[in-house]
Design brief:
Elements (H helix, E strand, L loop, with lengths): L10 H15 L4 E4 L1 H7 L8 E4 L3 H7 L3 E5 L4 E6 L2 E7 L1 E3 L11 E3 L2 H6 L9 E3 L4 E3 L4 H7 L8 H5 L1
């Protein structure tokens, strides 16, 4: 469903749009994800834009001239555009968390699987910034409307 946003489209949003468009031009599925989408739905100006994509870390390195492999093993690259950093993460599913923070392994997967590994429903919303369509696989928009914070899956398992 297309959404109208009243929050201003700032420089960071424009650069995030550039990254998503460039990834799509190379044939990869790509979205803005998380807190930025939540904030935009709340008519607040987002500060931080994260991008999720079907592109592998090696693809991200090949496509963008300035990248930092902040978590390449886990599919996470930092893309720098005009001195602004953006986290670009490959769609993935996580294995068991040994240290409570990092999974023992990741499997690159689909956008649906990627969303289901995230923490809260309201942080799992996806925005296609070209069409302003918001994808919601876990009920985040309804939770945002109800003003509730709900974990994806079992909260005990998620935060244990």
């Amino acid at each position: 469903m297309k959404t109208k946003f009243s929050a201003p489209i700032n420089k960071k949003f424009q650069k995030a749009l550039y990254i998503v468009e460039k990834l799509k031009n190379y044939g990869f599925e790509s979205y803005i994800v998380g807190g930025a989408v939540r904030d935009m739905l709340l008519d607040q100006e987002p500060e931080d834009f994260d991008i999720t994509t079907s592109a592998l870390p090696e693809d991200v390195e090949r496509i963008f001239p300035l990248t930092i492999p902040v978590g390449k093993t886990f599919g996470v690259m930092m893309v720098i555009v005009e001195k602004l950093p953006f986290e670009v993460a490959t769609f993935r599913s996580d294995g068991k968390y040994i240290d409570g923070r990092r999974p023992e392994k990741v499997v690159f997967s689909s956008v649906e699987q990627d969303v289901k590994r995230r923490d809260f429903t309201i942080n799992s919303l996806l925005l296609n910034p070209e069409t302003f369509e918001v994808k919601d696989f876990v009920g985040g928009r309804a939770d945002l409307h109800k003003k509730i914070i709900r974990a994806i899956g079992s909260p005990e398992k998620r935060f244990g």
